[in-house]
Amino acid sequence: MINKAILIENIKRLLAIPIYFLIMIIAFAILPLHTTRDYYSTAWQVYHIIHHQNIFIVSSMVTMPLILAIFLHPFHFDKKVAINFYSLPIKKAELFLTNLATGLIFITALVLIVSVALLIPFNYSIEVHLSWESAIQDFTHDFSGTFLFFLRTLLGFIFYYAMFTLAMSLSANRLVGILFSIALMGFTFAATSFIYIISYLYIFGHPGFDDNQFISAVFSNPALLWTIIRGDLAISPFIIAYIILTFIFIILGYLATQKRRLEQVGTGMTFKWIENICTFLFSFFGAVISAAFLTALLESIIGIYIGLILGFLIFFIIGQMILEKSLQIKHRLKLLIPNAIIIVVLYGVFNFLHIFMAGYINRIPDINEVYAIEVDRNWFWDEEIRTLRKIRDEDAIRLAAILHESILESRSEYGAIPLQRMVGINRGIRFELIYHLHNGEVVHRAYYVPFDITHTEPFINLFSNDTVILRNFLTLTGVFDLSLVTVQLERLTENEFGWWNTEIKETQNITMNDTRLEPLIEAAREGLLKQTRQEVVTAEDGRNVLPLPRYQITLSIQTIENNIRFFSGDWVNIRIEYADQILELLEIELPNEAN
Amino acid sequence: MIQIKNLTKTFDGQKALDGLNLNVKKGSIYGLVGINGSGKTTALNHITGLYKQDFGECQVNGENSYDNKKMKETLGYIPDELFFFTNYNLKNTKAFYKNMYKNWNEDRYKDLIERLQLNEKKRLKGFSKGMQKQAAFALIMSTMPEVLILDEPIDGLDPIVKKVIMEYIIEDVADRGLTTVISSHNLKEMDGICDTVGIMKKGKTLIEGELDEIRQKISGESEPLSLDEIFVKVYENDYKNRGVEKNDK
Asked: In terms of C-beta distances under 8 Å and separation of at least 24 residues, what long-range contacts does A514-522 make, across chains too?
């Protein structure tokens, strides 16, 4: 199945490629571990490498497979090379598998050497501050972690190698091969975006996944690692998906190599139907970009239509020129007719969905069926935090349903045009509401609404509700064991340039054993509620700016939950007019100017 | 040895081969001639197993030629345009061919590079076109092929080298029964080498057979014609016949 002579020749011929990448990784990722004297910095660098956050390893994961795929398949792009290669005593299948094996040998050797080199600075241990919830996790650099790094990195390299091998098998000239490889990398992005937009606009009122998952799915493809590290250390569905995709790419690459004909070498793509699909997608991509650009420029709906038509035409012509490797593409313009027909059919399908499926978006569940709601869940990654932020207050649930109804009633007034949202010109607030029903159903809705909704009664009523306000300050609701409250009194002034100056006047630490802790939390809660209610009523464009100079009390609260230390907990900012009780407890007297 | 029956191949809607029939006997030197675009190279690319036919049959030694490893082990092909790996010299390329072909003959290789005076250490891409052809010939002949396919082999070669190469081929035909197919524009050169010819036009064979028989048939009572003259006559006859066909319709 594998031709030894070609394999040896490939290795001799292309050995410089993995050696170059090895030198780069050793020089810019491994060597700095030994030259840095500071323990913490070294540990931090090791953490970055193990968690695939080192730019040299990440970029090599994509660039090395791409370069290998290009150089291992010269016979796909040049007829002279193809004739000489295929006249050798080797079957097409054997040639494909031999080239695949060459790439795998190079990749495995590189990743293995890098992983072994990583074991030299052994046993570093640090506390890592994770983002969002600011939790701390212990990280120790050990053999099992490095072994998992090896497996994941290997998978990453092989995944991209398989993907680019497929791209080369389907391409008949080098430029198209490279462009197609990049396009395949963006395939997950395009597919996810498409599902997201369609489901968001036409089917559910909200996609089946949330924005954070969407973002991670989008960004994970070019740098796969994000999904791999996110899957914890165990095998995650993402890893399984990548393994399956790798096999699919290899099988498709094999079949394409078997099916491709020598006479196609040097043209655009190996199969006409793929060529047509690719030029359509490329033109469609150009149409959307151009529509977004023109709409922003003209600030009018007309920009969308002009942009779509112009963008499609321009990108169609560019695509054909790339495939033909010539400016003379007149004979290919007739292909615009089937493309236009597809666009019209798609437009019709979308409109059908919009008319007949949009009813589902408007459904508000019976509030008797609802046991909890969530608002702005999207900002929180941690499922546990999301659960704690659920609002179970009946009054809040009722008020949420009223606000939801008012949004739906006035929805036609603001931006019901799907394309406007598709190209991202909607301006306003993204309002998200999730109903948890007794029967286990979750009704997830998200709407773009204009800023002036914040002045309407249903909005003020919902966001003045105590439980709704406190969802953002879990440390004040008693769900955590508090360990430390740091109280800071600041004086805020405006300087001659109109900038804020912050001057710390007082700082006190109040520990768990302090008898003032409970009354202090109680006072903070009361002050915060009063203040926030006031802010909701007077908010302009979602912001509430009070005149300076003024005093502000900040409570930084630490909690311990499941042995994870939330080192910052909540920062509760309370302006001085709502903080009398806190000042009393702290025995602080304000200077005269604050009164 | 090589049998092509009703072979048809279409590129972008245009027929490059239109029911081609060829029959190359073992141990013969077959000259495939025709004007530019008559389908000679396409026919050779089918024999060497590079192209897959749309219709018809193409067999070498009784086996279908397309993507046939076993057949290619005994077939040597020197195309019109050659490719060598970047930075490779003859020595590196020889090592590759030695690993690729089971029947590699080192003595023959040494003999050939000596007779052709090829520098083993010079980069092949730095060779002239003629020198590259000689290098390719040395490599292919050292694989001890049973079938040798040469596309425009004489282009760019000086007379002495031409003589060496042709002598080698004729020796192999006599000693080992090598079957050779040569495609060329240079009919004068072909005249002295080939024992069989096939004249192609628009993807078809106009005439095929032993050169002497064809010569006799076309020359008739008059002085024997050269291959050049035969070629012109066959094309003229075809043109006339087509005219008659058109008028009949």
From this structure: A516/A585, A516/A586, A517/A482, A517/A485, A519/A581, A519/A585, A520/A485, A520/A487, A520/A555, A520/A582, A520/A585, A520/A586, A521/A475, A521/A476, A521/A482, A521/A485
